[in-house]
C-alpha cells in the first residue's frame, strides 16, 4: 500500500462510510507506537527504583562508560566551540547554507559566548585548573561529572527512540481521546497529555524535547507550547524518589509524591491563566503553520476518529533514511548545542549559590511567608525556595540538614513543583524556538512557588504530620 492510499478518505459525505485502510496501514501505526510506549511510557522497576525503558538503556550505557564520559563530554564541548569559532571567523560555505548543520554550528552573539564558556569550564573542571569556584566538586564538578553524562546517554537514546512515539500516530490517537478534558481543564490540545506522561515516567527534559518538536511541526501554538513546557515537564518518579532519599523522606515517599502530583495539577490550571503565559498568542510556528485538528466529525466516536487520525499520520511518517538523518541531527544538536549551554549556565548558577549570598538575600521575603504558614526553621528554609531556579538538586542539598521533618517535606515538595531549573529545563527552553525569555522563566518559577507553597504547607500540616 502506498502513502496516498493510506491517507485516502472514502467518506462521500459526513455521515457516509468510514475510511478503510489495509492491515499494513494499521500495523505501521501500532508497531512503532508500541515501541515508543515501551521505552517512554511503561514503568519498569529496577533495583527497587521506578524508571522507564529509556532510563534503563541509558543507565546501562552510562554504567559501562562512566569513567570516560566526563572526558568525552569535554571533548564534545571543546570541539563544538572550535567549530563554532571557525565558522564565525572564516564563514565557510557550509555555514552560509540554510541547513541543520549550519544551525547547530553557527550560534551567534551570547549563544556563541556561552558555548565557548561551557567548553572552557569543562576543560578547567576536568583538569582542575583555573579558579576553584569553577572546577569545585559542588559547581563545575556537579555539571561535568553528574549531569552531562546523564544528558549524553539519556538524549542519545531519546533522539533515536522519540520518533516511534511522535511520528507514527500515537500522539494523534491519545490526543483525540484526551482532547475534551485537556481543552476544558488546561485549554490545551489533547496530545499534550503525552508530554506530561513522558515527563512523569521519564524525564522533564524528554517532555520539553517532545513539546519543542511538536511546536516546530505546527501542532502547538506559541501559547500552548509555552504552557506545556513550563507546566507539564514534571520531574519523573525516579528523580522524585532520589530527592526523597537525599533529603531523608524516603519513608514518606507515597504521601510526598501524591502531594507533588496534586499541587502540580493545581498549578497547571492556575499558572497559564496568569501573565506572562496568558499574554502569549495562539500563533503557530512561522515555518509550518497550524497542523492540528482535534474537532470530532459527525459519524465518529473519539476512539474511531483518533484511530483514523493515527493511521493517516503513520502513513506520512518518514522512512528509515529520513528517520536516521533526523536522529543524527537531534543528537548533534543536543551534544554540540545544548551541552555547552548547560555547562556554562549551570556552573555559573551553582557558583552563585555556593560562593555568594545572592540567593540568601533574595530569599528574605520568604521568611515571613514561611512563618505565616507555620513552617519551622523558616530562616533556614527560605533560601531553598529560590535556589531551585539554578539547579534542581540544590533545594534538597541545602535542606537536608534542617531538623524539622515537616520543613524538609515542604522544601522537597515545593522544589519538585517549581519545574524551571536553569541548569537543565531552563537552558533547553531558552535554546528552543518556544517564545520564552529568561525573565519570563523566572516569573513563572516565582508564580509556581507562590501557588504551590501554601497548598503544600496545608497538606503537610493537616494530612501528613
From TrEMBL:
<feature type="transmembrane region" description="Helical">
    <location>
        <begin position="110"/>
        <end position="129"/>
    </location>
</feature>
<feature type="transmembrane region" description="Helical">
    <location>
        <begin position="23"/>
        <end position="46"/>
    </location>
</feature>
<feature type="transmembrane region" description="Helical">
    <location>
        <begin position="141"/>
        <end position="162"/>
    </location>
</feature>
<dbReference type="InterPro" id="IPR011642">
    <property type="entry name" value="Gate_dom"/>
</dbReference>
<keyword id="KW-1133">Transmembrane helix</keyword>
<keyword id="KW-0812">Transmembrane</keyword>
<feature type="transmembrane region" description="Helical">
    <location>
        <begin position="67"/>
        <end position="90"/>
    </location>
</feature>
<feature type="transmembrane region" description="Helical">
    <location>
        <begin position="334"/>
        <end position="358"/>
    </location>
</feature>
<feature type="transmembrane region" description="Helical">
    <location>
        <begin position="253"/>
        <end position="271"/>
    </location>
</feature>
<keyword id="KW-0472">Membrane</keyword>
<feature type="domain" description="Nucleoside transporter/FeoB GTPase Gate">
    <location>
        <begin position="150"/>
        <end position="248"/>
    </location>
</feature>
<feature type="transmembrane region" description="Helical">
    <location>
        <begin position="225"/>
        <end position="247"/>
    </location>
</feature>
<protein>
    <recommendedName>
        <fullName>Nucleoside transporter/FeoB GTPase Gate domain-containing protein</fullName>
    </recommendedName>
</protein>
<feature type="transmembrane region" description="Helical">
    <location>
        <begin position="409"/>
        <end position="430"/>
    </location>
</feature>
<dbReference type="Pfam" id="PF07670">
    <property type="entry name" value="Gate"/>
</dbReference>
<feature type="transmembrane region" description="Helical">
    <location>
        <begin position="442"/>
        <end position="464"/>
    </location>
</feature>
